[in-house]
Amino acid sequence: MYLKHLLGCILSKNGFRINIYLSEDYSNSSFVTRGDVRLTSVIEMTTKELARKIEAIKALGFVRSARKGPTGIGHTFEGLMGYSENNISVPDWGVVELKTTRKNSDNLITLFSKVPKRRKGLTPKLLVEKYGYWDERKQRQALYTSINGTKPNSLGWILKIDEKENTLKIFHNGTEVAYQPLKELESIIDRKVNNLALVLADTKTKGKDEFFHYNEAWLLANPESENLIGLIRGGYLIFDWRMHIKSTGRARDHGPGYRIKESSLPKLYSEKVKLV
């Protein structure tokens, strides 16, 4: 996220200072709109203040989820913190995005979407027609599949790193179908998730309710190329095709996505500071 101009600050009802910035990229931020200007709100606190706040939440032990489903962990934590902004300004770190995750979670989160470069002449429609499958339930040709770097999936897809060309390549049954320069992926990661404050929680269920114990937190910065390659090869970072042919005969592309296991996020970063 790019923050361009500090416009001022306000105090929240909880006593936090909230800086208001004019933002170039607010796709992952909380913002308010004033006329044609969009403003990004960012909580400001020191690492000690952030650590003390999380320590106080840790001391509560297991807390009942305030919302059912996978988003309950983040929603509940926001309520305990006392604000809904998920961006925090930390001295010497800049603006960090606050994320919560269940420990040892296999849930996948989308890091970003990026269309890879396809082989010459391979249009989205041809890609689905040639490498997709017939979806009996929806009666259409489709290509929805998750691809990792450890072994071919059930449809024959696999990711491979070409270190000589510094490129991620996408293969189908031994044929290179598309590729992505690693520099492009690194650039997107630097823009989207360069700094994170990651809070982890143990979970338990009682009846239909889920409970969270937020008991570990890290500041993460400086994602590295070697770490990115390791995550791809280890199967932690995957690539998704998300396409089908509409009844009109045209291709519908929901945008290829790069996803990562929540619990594997720290492996992407070279700089880690434990808060709690």
Short description:
This protein is 18% helix and 47% strand. It has helices at 47-58, 72-81, 124-131, 182-192, 225-233; strands spanning 3-11, 17-23, 31-34, 37-44, 63-64, 87-90, 94-102, 108-113, 117-118, 133-135, 140-147, 157-162, 167-172, 175-181, 195-206, 209-223, 237-245, 251-253, 257-261, 269-274.
Description:
Strands 1, 2, 3, 4, 5, 6, 7, 15, 16 and 20 form a ten-stranded mixed β-sheet that branches. Strands 8, 10, 11, 17, 18 and 19 form a six-stranded antiparallel β-sheet that branches. With 276 residues, the protein is an alpha+beta fold. The chain is built from five helices and 20 strands. It is 18% helix and 47% strand. It folds into two domains: 3-102 and 192-223 and 264-274, PvuII Endonuclease, Chain A; 110-186 and 226-261, Alpha-Beta Plaits. The longest helix has 12 residues, at 47-58. Residues 1-40 have low confidence and may be disordered.
The CATH architecture of the largest domain is: 3-Layer(aba) Sandwich
Q: Span from first to last CA? A: 25 Å
User: Tell me, what is the CATH class of the largest domain?
Assistant: Alpha Beta
- N-to-C order of helices and strands: EEEEHEHEEEEHEEEEEHEEHEEEE
Tally of discrete structural domains: 2
Poorly predicted runs: 1-40
Give the overall silhouette. globular
Number of E strands: 20
The overall pLDDT average reads 83
Q: Helix count?
A: 5
Structural class: alpha+beta
